[in-house]
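Bug #77: duplicate submission created two jobs. Keeping one. Sequence:
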Amino acid sequence: MSGTLSASSSRSGLHLAARRVKHVITSSPSRFAIVVFAALILLFTGLLSLPISSSDGTVTELSDALFTAVSTICVTGLSTVDMSTHWSWFGQIVVFIGVNIGGLGVLTLASLMGLAISKRLGLSAKLLAAGDTNPLRAHGGVVNESQTVRLGEVGQLLTTVALSALIIEGALAVLLYPALVMAGVDAISALWEAPYFAAMSFTNTGFAPNAGGTAVFGDDYLVLILLMTGVFLGSIGFPVIYTLAKHVWHVKRWSLHSKLTLVTTVLLFFAGAGAFLMLEYDNPRTFGSMDAVDTTVQAFFLSAMTRSGGFNVIDMSDLNGSSMLVASMLMFVGGGSASTAGGIKVTTLAVLAIAVWSEARGRQSVEAFGRRIPSDVQRVGLSVVAWGATIVAVSTVAITQITKLPVVDVLFDVISAFGTVGLSSGVAEGLPDSAAYVLAATIFMGRVGTVTLAAAVAATSRSQLYSLPVERPIVG
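Kept job's structure:
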């Protein structure tokens, strides 16, 4: 009898503990997303640690496996090992699957996990679905409950994301295959490299399956343009892709989010290319030895890749210091919201720039394209920028102190990690374990932190029925 009571008590205790864990995970959108991504990283760390994953059949060190798993799931592209030689076919397939899972978005996965756990989408999961990859999220600032019910429909969410990824990556792979063959890649090898490059460009990861990476295609404009196209489509985000698919020829029907994303993306693309042309045209290690056409193509390619793409033709350490600073600025901004790109997002930059311009002109409200941008969206933007700057500053100080490397090079790699870009000045490879863990944490916080912070701010915003007396501190 006592044994039966003991077993019943044990089951009751386990059930109670499970309910408490479920409540802790699902009660906060931010916590829910972090748990999902952390679980995926641990899973892929285990897979990449297996002897079958390495080319020499040995167990990969924990720091290298963990760093690669973080970089893979967070679609970053930085690595502490040579991606083309260290991993076996099994390891390469694990990475390929990982970047596609990561490319779907942390909040989409979190929504699905919420569905699996609770058999329905609760409010927290709906907020997660509303915060990422959903085409209707662009309307309004803070999401109210009635809107999240519409936005949290898992069927529409999955259809938009999965079809976008499948169609775009498939089309890119089909176009890349003959381009790679014409570039000298073996026809059999191209069967693997074409979908691999397609996935890495659309997810804005930047891993390369071949020795030498994209540098071997430096003179092949077709390959470079296709890679830039994949990066662009991945970086504008699923809401914009959805809008373009429905209203591509009806600009007036585009959401404010889509307009801001496309305009800011194009402006940064051309501004970055122009800056690199001016700063590197006489550098013999980069553009100085190229003709006018090659210089122009390489400048636009570098501008596109610093937005989160991660592929590179020239060595980043060969850039002038001024160009590295421009590249760091572009990497910090990143791509569009609810996209495979990282950074603080172009819409964040656009909203804050418009707010500053409105303040300078003495306007009471912030407006763009005939729409007013509410103050809560501006507060979220400020929070994301402050969060990003803090992460970059702390990580740079920590890694510089550990490695004693030049702060300029460390800062470049830290911003690349935060923006999930994947470009490196050479710091990432050869990092001691402690510094590698710091950089991995930077990648994780850069990919998950800014999005979950925005979701948390939106989720906790509530109307206030009273106001306190006003007093103006001195600012500036």
